[in-house]
Sequence to fold (89 residues):
Amino acid sequence: MTDAGTPGISDPGVLLVREARAHGVPVVPIPGPAAVVAALSAAGIPADRFVFDGFLPVKPGKRINRLKTLKRSIRPSCSTNRPTGSPRP
Fold:
């Protein structure tokens, strides 16, 4: 528990999360305004830098190209997707 921000995001809290998960101890983030930060804090992966890529392209070719680009990144990445038929923001 911390009162100084989300542990595991740009601090050594990732080491504690990784050990807890390795020993079967549940890690439960309490989401704030950004769900991606909660998810990263409990993932047990280094998250001092990560990519938030926003909405994926709608067209399949562009979507695949974007995902291939993100896959080559050394940083964890997150993007959002809308249900089929939803209007673009």
